[in-house]
């Protein structure tokens, strides 16, 4: 399957990307995508403890399944206002 | 409907849009950009958002505010991009029959915004460099 990954704030700066597409085996879960991303961009690992993830704009746990075409967003702790 | 804007927040328009003949109160909170943070001099701030998700979260927050409190309406505008010092970065306007619920709801909505909406703030420092403001993990 192919998914789109969006990086925000520190995740964007740590990875050097705002957006990438990722090829993953069928049946992959969010945790599998994060493992690939951390392998490609080791600096992301430091964000992991407080990173939230959304699939198609919905917050999910890392055991959530992925499907072809979804948008996975990496969301560091928020600081609006 | 909530709004994200890269232009100055139209505060007068927000107030005019919040006024209702059956209400006696509008509580308006403006968050403005500040020139210091934890002992460092700040020269400017900039905001980024996961825009579609942030807009949906702000819309949901407006609805939740009206559902939780005895208020008639809630309107939220958040600015994105560079915001010069002392300008509003966020506005929350709550319209109600009476001021008590308007104040309570306005404060609650602002507190919720800071911990539930995917928006990030970066500071530029007088001594050079910049940094993301430590935030709250989304749950």
Structural class of chain A: alpha+beta
Chains forming the largest contact: A-B, 18 and 31 residues
Q: What is the number of domains of chain B?
A: 1
Largest sheet of chain A: 5 strands, mixed
The parts of chain B where pLDDT drops under 50 for at least 5 residues are: none
- Strand content bin of chain B: 35-45%
User: Could you say which structural class the secondary elements and strand pairing of chain B correspond to?
Assistant: alpha+beta
User: What is the total tally of β strands of chain A?
Assistant: 5
User: What count of helical segments of chain A does DSSP give?
Assistant: 2
Shape, per Cα inertia axes of chain A: globular
Helix content of chain A: 10-25%
What gross morphology of chain B would you assign?
elongated
Q: Tags for this entry?
A:
heterodimer, A: about 80 residues, alpha+beta, Ubiquitin-like (UB roll), 5-stranded mixed sheet, about 20% helix, about 30% strand, B: about 140 residues, 4-stranded mixed sheet, about 30% helix
3D architecture notes:
- The complex is a heterodimer of chains A (81) and B (139).
- Chain A has two helices and five strands.
- By secondary structure, chain A is of the alpha+beta class.
- Chain A has one domain (2-72): Ubiquitin-like (UB roll).
- A five-stranded mixed sheet of chain A has the order 2-1-5-3-4.
- In chain A, strand 3 and strand 4 form a beta hairpin.
- Chain A is globular.
- With 139 residues, chain B is an alpha+beta fold.
- Chain B has one domain (3-127): Aldehyde Oxidoreductase, domain 3.
- Chain B starts with a strand and ends in a 7-residue tail after the last strand.
- Classes of the chains: A alpha+beta (81), B alpha+beta (139).
- Chain A binds chain B through residues 6, 8-10, 50-52, 54, 57, 59, 73, 75-81, and chain B through 31, 47-50, 52-54, 56, 78, 89-90, 110, 113-122, 132-139.
List the helices and strands and how they pair.
The complex is a heterodimer of chains A (81) and B (139).
Chain A: E1 2-7, H1 10-15, E2 19-23, H2 30-40, E3 52-55, E4 58-60, E5 71-75
Parallel strand pairs in A: 1-5
Antiparallel strand pairs in A: 1-2, 3-4, 3-5
Chain B: E1 3-5, H1 11-18, E2 25-32, E3 36-37, E4 40-49, H2 51-68, E5 73-79, E6 81-83, E7 88-96, H3 99-116, E8 119-125, E9 130-132
